[in-house]
Amino acid sequence: MRPHAMASTPVAGDVTPAVLAIGRPDFPNVLIDTLRRQAGVGHCMVFALNRAGAASCLLDAGNIPTGADLGAAYAGQFHESDPNRDALFGAGSSAPIMLPSFAPRMYGARYRKIFFNDSDIVDKCATAIWIGDTCFYVNFYRITSQGRFGEVERARLESIAPAIGASVARHFQQATIGTPEQNLAALFATRAPLSTLTPREQDVCRRILLGFSSEAISQTLGISLHSTLTYRKRAYERLGISSQNELFSIVLRLLAGPHGLN
Predict the structure, then answer these.
(1) How far is the C-alpha of 21 from the C-alpha of 209, rounded, in Å?
(2) Residue 81 or residue 103, greater confidence
(3) d(CA 253, CA 126)
(4) Would the CA dihedral through 97, 60, 112, 159 be positive or negative?
(5) At 24, is the secondary structure helix, strand, or coil?
(6) What is the DSSP letter of 5?
């Protein structure tokens, strides 16, 4: 099975916590919590690969006790024998790709023993995205007690993979650490179409993205509920959308683009 490119525009899903955690120290924990809720992922590991042959483990989070050791072993030598390597380095664009489904026969005996049998891993899905000369290789695992990914979970992973891959890449590119509020404020101040909103429309939309109810928005901004709903309606009309999910989609698309939060 060959890898396939995915749509470059992330779908709206409940991956917003991971997106808003970009640049924060708790990003790994927020990411694995999001993946667990969305697709039953047990463990996530992220590797950075480059065409010069270097590899490093950037993230190791979840329910595999030996994850750190596996990450070091992969970055040290086993990345060279990864059966997905040709697909990773053969990717011709910066569009996210989904790697072939896991099959034990894909791996050599030693690789299979260390990375699957001894570590209790029974299934794996993976996505990757190239940003410049760096490939961010994001792996999702399940252990024996969880069983293999079901069809629904695989489909869900494929639907959120572009947003997850873009968020991971942006997190490790992020030079400064900001709060979710600061990250959103920067996005609304600098990136169209969000920057075309009036200051009060931006205030309302940022708080919608942060999970505030209409009542809570009214209270924090010191305005009536009617005013909050009016600003929301005007913002949605200006953006050409009609729902909160579509607002999430705009933010995820901008984060996945070449400028992101920078």
Answers:
(1) 13
(2) 81
(3) 21
(4) negative
(5) coil
(6) E
Q: Please check the confidence at residue 164 and state whether its pLDDT lies above 50.
A: yes
Instruction: Tell the burial category of 172 from Cβ atoms under 10 Å away from its Cβ (0-12, 13-18, 19+).
Output: middle
Q: Is 161:10 a contact under the CB 8 Å cutoff? A: no
Residues present in the chain in total: 262
Q: Any idea which residue has 């200006």 for tokens?
A: 238
Distance, in Å, from the CA atom of 99 to the CA atom of 87, rounded to the nearest integer, reads: 7
Q: What share of the chain is helix, strand, coil (3-state, %, to 5)?
A: 50, 15, 35
Supply the pLDDT for residue 23.
Answer: 81
Residues whose CB falls within 8 Å of the CB of residue 105, separated by 6 or more in sequence, listed in order:
none
Quick one: what percent of the chain has pLDDT higher than 70? Answer: 89
Q: What is the pTM of this model?
A: 0.70
C-beta separation of 39 from 31 below 8 A: no
Joined together, the tokens standing for residue 187 give 């996005």
Dihedral sign, CA of 144, 150, 155, 156? negative
Is residue 17 a contact partner of residue 34, using CB atoms and an 8 Å limit?
Answer: yes
Residue 12, pLDDT above cutoff 50: no
User: Which range, of 26-30, 63-67, 197-201, averages the lowest pLDDT?
Assistant: 197-201
pLDDT of the residue at 261:
46
C-beta separation of 6 from 97 below 8 A: yes
